[in-house]
Amino acid sequence: MLCRIRPLIALVAFLFVVPAFAQDDDPLPSWNDGATKQAIIDFVTKVSEPESGDYLPPKDRIATFDNDGTLWLEQPMYVQLAFALDRVKELAPEHPEWKKTQPFKAALEGDMKALAASGEKGVAELVMATHAGMTPAEFQTIVGDWLATAKDKRFERGYTGLVYQPMLELLAYLRQRGFTTYIVSGGGIEFVRNFSQAVYGIPPAQVVGSSIKTKYEVVDGVPTVMRLAEMNFIDDKDGKPIGITEHIGQRPIAAFGNSDGDYQMLDWTTAGDGPRLGLIVHHTDAEREYAYDRDSSVGRLDKALDDAPGKGWIVVDMKNDWKEIFPPKE
């Protein structure tokens, strides 16, 4: 009798345990099941499984990610711009002329309309004035101190807590499958390098971004690199393939973005030979995050949204494809 019961117990255990393991093995638990999630898994599987006809060795499994709006929020303004505005206020006592000079006057008064009217030139002036005149290490310390205390007003959370949980899972999944993941951001390279390892698991050497010029000099007998108030490289739009070529040295097989600023990176990536993946995060969830695309001055998504179907790029519908937006609060 006991011999007959044991197989029955084993069968019951199998029926209950296997679904639990299947759920635990889901590499993207914050993604809703559907065509988007399946397309990602299918791509990763076919390039990483040795028996696949599309198998690629790990050295070729390069994936690049935009940062603002792709890995963390970018509304109502880019996080680095929020940092620059706070720096203007902190440095204002040393620059009384800023009270009468745009765009600094707008920054000090919180006049976002006037600041927007200053355009990219005005924002660049703020960045130059607040990001230069120090060593990279000193800048890293300033950024780190700011990120440790600054909070987004709407969500009342620090910015490094406003990263996208589904994208964190995707980064981990890719690395588990032998991919090397890079950030390719229009934001400042040193700004992003400050938190890339701790937040995304991406070391500073795997960050590509915009940069200001630097100068080597010896100060009091100590060799030093100083950050200058002059733009060196803008890693946006057609700058992204250039930045990837110069920093990484090969075309990725997967690229992830959310705006027209990422168009050229996705276009160049998916134009390569063999299996390719291009993915756009479409912000469609006004309740849990923000809903914006064609008319937004921040993270504008227009041409890339129109061209995505013809180019075979996956468009993630944030509202419908993601179970969660941000990680749970600690």
TrEMBL record:
Keywords linked to the UniProt accession: Signal
UniProt signal peptide: 1-22
Entries under InterPro entries matching the protein: HAD-like_sf, HAD_sf
Pfam family, one: HAD
Family matches, as SUPFAM superfamilies: HAD-like (SSF56784)
Gene3D superfamilies hit by this protein: HAD superfamily/HAD-like
The name this protein goes by in its record: Haloacid dehalogenase
